[in-house]
Structure formats: C-alpha cells, structure tokens
Amino acid sequence: MLSGFKDFILRGNVIDLAIAVVIGAAFTAIVTAISTDVFGNLIAAIFDAQEIGQLGVDIPSRTGDGATKIVFGTTIAAALNFLIVAAVLYFLVVVPMNRLLALRKQGAEPDVAAPSEDILLLQEIRDLLAAQRAAGAAGPGGAGGDTDAAGGAGPAGQRGPDLP
User: Fold this and answer.
1) What's the rounded Cα separation, in Å, for the pair 2 and 53?
2) Which candidate, 73, 87, 121, 132, has a CA 20 to 30 Å from the CA of 143?
3) Sign of CA dihedral 14, 15, 17, 18
4) Domain residue extents for the chain
C-alpha cells in the first residue's frame, strides 16, 4: 500500500504541481505586499485614510446612537491584488504561450496522409469494376450479355445483381 503511494508522489506531475503551489504562495505574498503597501497606501492617501483597510462610509443610525461603518477598503485591496496577479499571469504566461502556438502553426503545415494499401487496393477494384461495367454496356445487346456478377451465366441466362 505504501509503495503505491510512493509511486504516486514521485510521479513528475505531482511534484511539478507541488512546486507550482509553493511558488504560487510565495508570489501571492509578494503581490499582496505590493498591493497593500504601495498601491493601497497611495489609494488611502488620496482618500485621506491611514491605510486602505480603513476606507469606508459612515452611515448614520436612525436612533442617533452612532454610525454604522461600511468598510470597503479591504475589498479594494483584494480586487487590486487580483488585478495584479491576473496581469502578471497574462503577460508572463498567456502572451508568450500564444506566440509560441502561432509560431508552431506557421511552421507546421498539415500533411495530407497518403492512403493506406487497403484503400489503394479498394480504389483499384472500384475502378476496374467501373471500367468492366462501362465496357459491358457498350458491348453487343447493350446489356453486357448474359453473365452474372462473377462472370458466369446465371440460371436461365439471367444476370446476377449489379455491384456498385
């Protein structure tokens, strides 16, 4: 049972996926720091707040007890974080991959595969039968004589079924 688990873990795809998760977590930490510390502080300064997490709107209470604060700064920070990650992935992964696929398409013209021997043989048989049928129709009597499909006379001189 443990050998199967060991084989599963040591497969290349699982290790590649684990490495991608670790790198993604580190990348997310970097992007979060940039979005909150750099861009978040710029946005907070524009709206006269200490940090982006404090951005919000005070809604006065009907009873006059105080105000309810709706904080949307963390939502702005999360959206900013998402946009940065999406932009980096687009420009570092999607654009180069599209260029690579376009170059592959230009370089590789689709080759028309040659027909197999079976197909060639069947085409030759079809052509011979068509030629035989055309020669038989042009012969005396116009119907090709009293022969069946195998070339022999049928019972009472009748022809056999026509082959396509």
Assistant:
1) 48
2) 121
3) positive
4) 2-105
* CA gap 77, 36 in Å, rounded: 6
pLDDT tens for the chain, residues 1 to 164: 788 877 777 776 777 788 888 988 898 889 889 888 898 889 889 988 888 888 888 888 888 778 888 888 889 989 998 999 889 889 988 899 899 888 888 876 656 778 889 999 999 999 999 999 998 877 655 554 445 554 544 455 445 555 55
**Which SS3 state, helix, strand or coil, does residue 37 take?**
helix
Report domain 2-105's class.
mainly alpha
Supply φ then ψ for residue 9, to 5 degrees: -65, -35
Q: In angstroms, what CA-CA distances link 37 with 49, 73, 115?
A: 13, 13, 65
pTM value is 0.49
Residue 158 in tokens: 């009748």
3-state secondary structure 56-109: EEEEECCCCCCEEEEECHHHHHHHHHHHHHHHHHHHHHHHHHHHHHHHHHHHCC
